[in-house]
Amino acid sequence: MLLRLVATALVFQLANGFIDQFVHLPLIPVTKDVGEGKLVFLQAVWRHGDRTPLVSLRNDNNTWPGTRGELTTRGMSDQVVLGEKLRTRYIEKLRFLGKRYTSKEIHVRSTDVNRTLISAMANMIGFYKDAKADEDYPDHPLWPAGFVPVPVHTEDYAYDYVGNVDRHCPRTVALTKLLQTTPHYSNISESNKEFLDEISELSGIKLRIDNLFLVHDNLLITKRYNKPWPEGFTDEIYEKISSLKAEADKALFGVGYEEHEGVDLSLELAKIRGGPLLSHFVEQIQNKVLCATKPFKDQTAGEKRVCRWMKPLKYHAISAHDMTIAGLFAAFGFNQTNYHAPGLPDYASAVTVELREQNGTHHVKVLFWPPNNPFHYQDITAEVSDCDEKCDLEQFLKRSEPYKVEDAKELCDTLLFGASVRPTTSLLSLISLLFIVGVLFTM
């Protein structure tokens, strides 16, 4: 059955033109290991699988299974294939994890959204495909054969600073408003105003650059399912929307933007959107190293609590969104939002961060798992800014320092930007001014 899922996913991808956009780096067979030393800790983040459109457009007669934004059966298949791909490397090839689920070895986290939660479950079906009845799951006629119930943990979506890039964050809003006053963004917005007005009329949605994704999302999925365009839309219009939406994606993360009014937009937006996830990965790595190298008797009470969980833990996975991975890419210093391609990461795209130990020292490997290739991955470690093919742990920590987020909520609530970022009322302006003055006097 799993081979049939792989074949189905591959045929669908090829039929819809999902040509690999990352050919500048070699595609490495899943069965081949390019790492040096011993793998000691694994972290992963993936985007959910195929889903239905987020919105309907005017004069759109297409129908979709379920409700808006929900995972499709095709999306479930996407994740089973990804899970099996990860299994091939980390269970079968490297024998890093056991073939059967062990609760202390693995921790799976998801954003609190149906499509990511179900994607995590589907991924685990592929990851633990060799489960045995009456040992890993009940031998009961009503129980789905091969299904191992792996716990999937989550956070309040509005305050999930690690997985949800769009969580409540006044600093992100302030940075975005500042970016939208840059000459580059203003030029894009003004030069496309007539086109956006035209698409607003066609779609029934009042469009700006920063919400164009709503229309693009519907059209992209329509194209992938070979359904007819909504009335008035054409291939040419879709291509122009895609090109403009790619510019909007770069603006979300400050990619390609220079300093403006004293604010380094590329750094600050990468930090606020991708910094929490990168910092989470870094913290886990540091804890893993501490627990492995510091004798138990020398550990503080807090360290002992952490190590009781971290020492046996081998795999930490996060099921999230395209924006989550794009934020990580921005914090890696990439000049595109989809690694080396425009747009956002596709369904079931994944990144794994490996901590390895060799001769008493640790280094990091970063792998990218293209969504349109069930049999390969890519080693992108050297593409991470200030890293080479084997990124020494100290170097990885040093290059990650500018994106470090100690307390994401506190950072989100901190507004320290130029005078052009003004709240909409005089009262809020006064509060902001008092806050800034207070901070300046305590620095």
Automatic annotation (TrEMBL):
Its EC number is 3.1.3.2. The chain crosses the membrane at residues 424-442. Pfam families: His_Phos_2 (PF00328). Keywords: Disulfide bond, Glycoprotein, Hydrolase, Membrane, Signal, Transmembrane, Transmembrane helix. It is an enzyme of class 3 (hydrolase). CDD domains: HP_HAP_like (cd07061). The keyword Transcription regulation does not apply. SUPFAM superfamilies: Phosphoglycerate mutase-like. GO terms for molecular function: acid phosphatase activity. Residues 1-17 form the signal peptide. It catalyses: a phosphate monoester + H2O = an alcohol + phosphate. Belongs to the histidine acid phosphatase family. This is acid phosphatase. It comes from Bursaphelenchus xylophilus.
